[in-house]
Amino acid sequence: MKQRTISSSFAAFLECSGCQKKYNLSQANTFSKCCNKPLLVNYRVTESFLKEDLTQRENTMWRYFEMLPVQNKQNIVSLGEGMTPLIRLHNLEDKYGFSHLLMKDESGNPTGSFKARGMSAAVSKMKELGINKCIIPTAGSAGVALAAYCASANIHCVVVMPTHTPDILKKECQLYDAKLILVDGLISDCAIKAKEINADENYFDVSTLKEPYRLEGKKTMGYEIAEQLHWVLPDVIIYPAGGGTGLIGIWKAFLEMLQLGWISGPLPKMIAVQSENCAPVFSAYNDPVNWKKSFHAKPSVANGLVVPDPFGMDLIQKVIYESDGDIVVLSEKAIIDGAREVAKAEGILLSPEGSATWKALNVLLERPGRRASGNKINKSDSVLLLNTGSGYKYPDLMAML
Ligand SMILES: Cc1ncc(COP(=O)(O)O)c(C=O)c1O
Ligand SMILES: [Zn+2]
Fold first, then answer.
1. What is the pLDDT of residue 265?
2. Which ligand is nearest to the CA of 138?
3. What does the DSSP assignment read for 315-349?
4. Mean pLDDT of the region 318-339
5. I want to staple 118 with a disulfide (CB 3.0 to 4.6 A). Which of 127, 217, 314, 392 is the partner?
């Protein structure tokens, strides 16, 4: 059979996630000024892109080029991100009686986390738009990934990070030649600092979901999960949510694949996991109007989960609702215990964020379902956990195990 070549991207326009107003894809847009909400890339999925086309494609997330926002392939800035392994957790299955337990292990991505996917897309698009200066407030891993891709693309990058972030992440940013600014506080304080630095708007702001393309890179996890499972999705996906980009992105991928005709329903229940030190998704779920009034956040061993006021909150809640998903909040101790347990049982060194997904599964087994009768999930369900980053970036956690 003749191999079809990659055609062009199907990306058509940006759309306000509040009112669906259209924004131009060829301008340097950040978030919607009409509703102060994230902008989503909308694709014209009428042309044919067949899953069979994937068989001979490159082994990176760019194999889904048609469903990514870069118009010209020459602008792709890639360090080999994506196509991470799906690992069957046989020992945990046996020990706890699960039928089908999988982990998508994102730790092998460039810079050791799934943030590489988002930054490959964002920096590629910056290159395409001719942007040469950017800034990011970050909990850690996103700043490192941005710094690496900017080094590759010759883009100047400023990373604003909490002082308490693991030293290895700070050092790595500097090695990639980013300008590193430390702030005593959480990512929300870094965002204030970044805004101050960028008062003249000289820098392109790459904050989570205030920039439309990181989401597109992250969504490729959803495409890969489907492709690697031969287009049959798991019953449940458990995701460690900070700003929520991965959760929103994976769901977006599923909806796009329904349009492409690559999968059919039902779609997985999407579960967000948070630390009790910072659980805004849980607070907003329980009290959508007043949650901010009494909300407090503290640092967590899972520093990627500490995002006190996610810009994409509405989208996160929508995914949880539409998928009949749920939110699980864990203690710091549970997160640490989980990493130890998975290391001993499976030989995998999880990031603390990844560890949270394993412990959340145990909580969910006890929880009654919202719509269907019975429990939220069962041991006979196929469950996919996301290990979003490498345990090697957390020497302090390792010392606690
Ligand atoms: C390892 C890791 N996992 C999960 C997250 C949360 O990702 P998101 O903000 O996309 O929800 C982060 C964010 O920094 C992270 O670094
Ligand atoms: Zn709007």
1. 85
2. 1
3. HHHHHHHHTT-EEEEE-HHHHHHHHHHHHHHH---
4. 97
5. 217
